[in-house]
What we know:
The chain is of the alpha/beta class.
Amino acid sequence: MNKHSALVVGGGVAGLQTAIDLASMGINVYLVEKEPRLGGHASLLHQVFPTLENAEELTKQLLQKVLNDPNITVLPYAEIESVAGSIGNFRVHISKRARYVDKAKCTNCGECEKVCPVDVTKKFEMGLATRKAIYLPKPFAVPARYLVDKEACLYFKDESCRACQDACPEGAVLYDQKPLREELSVGAIVLATGFCQYDAQKVGQYKYGVYPNVITGMEYERLCSLTGPTGGKILRIDSKERPKSVVFILCTGSRDEKHLRYCCNIGCLNALKHTYYLKQQYGEEVDAYICYTDIRAVTKQGEQLYQKVRAGGVEFIHGQPSEVRQTPNGFLTLDVYDLATSKLLSITADLIVLETGLKPQVNLKEKLQLPLDEDCFFLEKHPQLAPNETTRDGIFLAGAVQQPMHVYETLISASAVAMKVSSFMRSSPASH
Ligand SMILES: Cc1cc2nc3c(=O)[nH]c(=O)nc-3n(C[C@H](O)[C@H](O)[C@H](O)COP(=O)(O)OP(=O)(O)OC[C@H]3O[C@@H](n4cnc5c(N)ncnc54)[C@H](O)[C@@H]3O)c2cc1C
Ligand code: SF4
Ligand code: SF4
């Protein structure tokens, strides 16, 4: 039995903060992340509402604490294979995926990616940016070394390529590397697996995936980010021209019995932030519209952001648009009945941004034998009294996996869970 060790699953801001707090209370933490980088969704954003701080910088502060803490062992690019035992004595098998690059030999010289023939479209970058099948993940690769994406690599498809191995001056590329299995003994498990976006294609009338200039809020973040595919310039996706009119549609897939019943909690403030970016870049040369069901600009500074955006010339339309259509020259048109003015408006746009709903990432539900509630979140022990505990003793929830959360709420949730885990460990009789 090892009550002084805990497993945190997920290396987004929730997992990072939980690990930091647990470690500061003297608990050994294993932080398992399935990707070869840490930071989760927050690290891919441009800025973080309501204060509009640089998202990468914010995440980096947490990351540095994690990487410098001797009580935290980071296990990146790893998967939970099985979990046995119970509170106070979980035995967790994890599998560290093969990287096919010896991290001790790799010097990040980049010679391998220069010769790799395979281009892989980068997630959330709308086909505007690619990486190679051998690559250095960004931001926040841990370790900061190259690896081979087995699904994309031609060697693993039909052995038709070995170009990176031939090009590597260090002999670091190893196609026969195997996954490594490890067993961990922990007293508690914190699930910080975050969220995934609702598939905007399911909200068929907005034609996401059909028209290139219809994008999601997450893709728009990448468009605005200095490290994104356009270096931060907000452009039409097809022609790369400056947009003259942009429409932001709230509640895409949220608050709708046909999709997700619940509020995504971030869409309203996101749309305010998104129009703010747009106006900062193009001022009066661009028309910005927000189509809303309600504006829920909660939080202390949310109202300030709302007032700033209203004063900045953004047009607010109280209604959900009808079907999006595309004209032969690539413009998008939509009709929307504005409940505030009782007028039917016809808008032409260069770009439409869908602020989509969020679903919890419950990919470990079977392995952990955890039931879900009717909205497919993990069932909590008690929604009011124990919202960050699952129905299985010793397995806790931190961050957006519990419900959609802002970054600051995520961090509060993570710290609260860490306290709960630590108090359980201290109070357990077997720990004496
Ligand atoms: C478009 C958009 C804009 C946003 N803008 C803002 C904003 O301006 N301000 C704000 O406060 N909030 C914003 N948010 C919300 C913010 O992104 C979340 O609060 C935050 O990302 C939640 O962190 P998390 O760690 O709970 O989840 P995530 O960021 O989703 O991280 C979860 C991590 O767990 C990992 N993981 C998942 N499953 C497993 C598994 N089985 N094993 C191991 N690892 C796993 C994932 O790879 C990921 O790294 C925005 C969200 C979106 C979608
Ligand atoms: S060529 Fe070799 S050493 Fe250089 S980045 Fe690629 S794997 Fe690393
Ligand atoms: S072996 Fe795979 S990763 Fe290496 S160059 Fe060829 S396709 Fe790219």
